[in-house]
Amino acid sequence: MNIQKQETYNFKSEVKELLHLMIHSLYSNKEIFLRELISNASDAIDKLRFISISSPESYENDSDMNIEISINKAQGTIIISDNGIGMTREDAIENLGTIAKSGTKSFIESFKKEKNGNNSLIGEFGVGFYSSFIVSQKVTVRTRFANTAHTEGTLWESSGEGEYNIKKITKKKRGTEITLYLKKEEEQFLDIWRIRNIISKYSDHIMVPVKIQTYDEKSKTYSWEQINKAKALWTLNKTSITKKEYQEFYKHLTNDSNNPIIWSHNKVEGNQEYISLLFIPKKADWDIWNRDNKHGLKLYVKRVYIMDNSNEFLPNYLRFIKGLIDSNNLPLNVSREILQDNRITNNLKQALIKRSLKMLEKLAKHNVEKYQKFWNEFGLILKEGPAEDSKNLNTIANLLRFTSIKNNSSEQTLSLKEYISNMHEKQEKIYYITADSYISAKNSPHLELFKKNNIDVLLLSDKIDEWMMNYLLEFENKKFQSISKDDISLNKLTEEKKINNHELETKIIDFLKKVKNILKDEVKEVRLTNRLTETPCMVLSDSNEMTTQMAKLFSAAGQKVPEIKYIFEINPKHKLIKKISLIQDSNELQEWIYLLLDQALLSEKGTLKNPHQFITRMNQLLI
User: CB 80: neighbour CB atoms within 10 A?
Assistant: First the structure.
């Protein structure tokens, strides 16, 4: 073997910290390193299979694709080799010498939070190769890219202590060969039966054969024995697959250490032939709210791997769903551009949406406890559905969960069906209120009328709720109504007659005129109300105005918000209003009226334009 000049490079600072954690802080489940290296080797073979379809003349390919593992007890080494796509020198530096993924810092932070070092995080954050240093004092990688133009290989080696070496080598066969020089205390992994058990546990259902080298004492010969089944699990008959096999396959597919909550395995034949295997995870991905979050299904065409994170088959509000789709109708040289503008893709997408929603309906119907756990983890994402998917709006609405006055808890457990079944006989609409927090919603003066009449109101305090309610207009022929907006149906809820000016004392009528004269254009209208029982006054939006919460959303997004002209409602039965109505001094009365308006605005908006003026005015009146 002709080895040329060696070059030494320093690891990036993040990698140094990561390696330090790998080597010194991981105590449990060290066997994870083998799962990660086999998974990487399987991916390399999948990539070669795919890339050689489009340009077979440029890439070496053959039907005998496999992963081989050999053990040398005398030297204390394990060798994991594959005949996949391999790496160029630049690939080796990029993939092994740096960690380009944005998740590295998040991995380190998450890792440090775990007292015992949670190495189940490794696969999730894409740092699987580095897990080899958990058990190794030195790691060498011999690799050659499968492109026929690349005839020279690369040797990469490191002890995981801050630097690595790179040099050119001659390597006849394509692919990658990783040699682990085990630490003395990790020689348990030189036991062939231990290796067999680890592979059976983690890698039984990867499509690539995993072979181990065995030695026959009698014949004094070496041979290769396949350990795993190497069959695509999704192609098997559902009745022949156990619950545990589904769970282990999910873990292999996603690098998630938790079992999925539920899954759906479906085979469709006819004009469109495809197999889908969809899983709902127990926990959300660490980066599910990032704009760069990679999500989507793994795409196969006629059992050939095409791409990861194919998000063309599921909408954004179902981005928590993991799994794969294997289609017989798409061309093998499919690209993202073809997928984005393809009738078959569109039909598959609609079918997979329905399949996903059915899976959630099944969970909600048959396992309320598990569905509640799902909702607590992914409910905010599902709330994006009404805005994104009008075709399935009713199904999505049925899956939503809320809290309400009668729930008396911030946990969202109430379905819309349950709300409607418990509606008050006088109630025409589904009433709700949006606010910045559950406490704020629960204590809003808008609720006083409803509490008095034993009418339930949905309390919406997630940031997305106001946006969602713009698309969630009705459910089972019952319209939604914000109680912070003016609406004629609200007048029918009380047993009391509508306040009539002729029935009021002259002083209250005069007081109302004075208030209108003082506030003038500050508000849209001033009127008396019987909706309040404990509060002297409140503001609400006109039926055609933007709501307060929507204005906050626009403002937070940096958009110009039109000024809202509120309706100012006064409770004539409140002691404070009765007292203020007797004030003769016009200046003092004006101060009181502005104080009341600011109180109502503060309660509605949670903030004031000039809080200092409000405090000064209140202090002056108290004096």
Answer: 21
Query: Could you tell me the two tokens for 364?
Result: 């909600």
Which two structure tokens, joined as six digits, stand for 139? 């790691």
pLDDT in tens, 155-166: 999 988 878 899
The helix (run of H) or strand (run of E) holding residue 38 is: helix 32-54
Instruction: Kindly indicate whether the domain formed by 6-226 is annotated with CATH number 3.40.50.300.
Output: no
> In this predicted model, what pLDDT tens digit does every residue of 377-389 receive, in sequence order?
999 999 999 999 9
Name the percent of the chain lying above pLDDT 90.
Answer: 53
What is the greatest pairwise CA distance in the chain?
115
pLDDT tens, residue by residue, 431-487: 999 999 999 999 999 999 999 889 999 999 999 999 999 999 999 999 999 999 888
Domain positions in the chain: 6-226, 233-375, 401-492, 501-622
User: Which string of b and e fits 429-466 if b means at least 16 CB within 10 Å?
Assistant: bbbbbbbeebebbbebbbbbbbebeebbbbbbbeebbb
Phi-psi region of 153 (alpha: psi -120 to 50; beta: other; left: phi over 0): beta
Q: Regarding the domain with residue range 501-622, which homologous superfamily does it belong to in the CATH classification? A: Heat shock protein 90, C-terminal domain (1.20.120.790)
Instruction: Give me the CATH code for the 233-375 domain, please.
Output: 3.30.230.80
Task: Write down how long the chain is.
Answer: 623
Q: Residue 181's beta-bridge partner residues?
A: 77, 138
CATH number corresponding to 401-492: 3.40.50.11260
Specify whether the CB–CB gap between 460 and 377 falls below 8 A: no
Q: How far apart are CA 357 and CA 368, in angstroms?
A: 15
pLDDT at 562 exceeding the cut of 70:
yes
Stated pTM of the model: 0.74
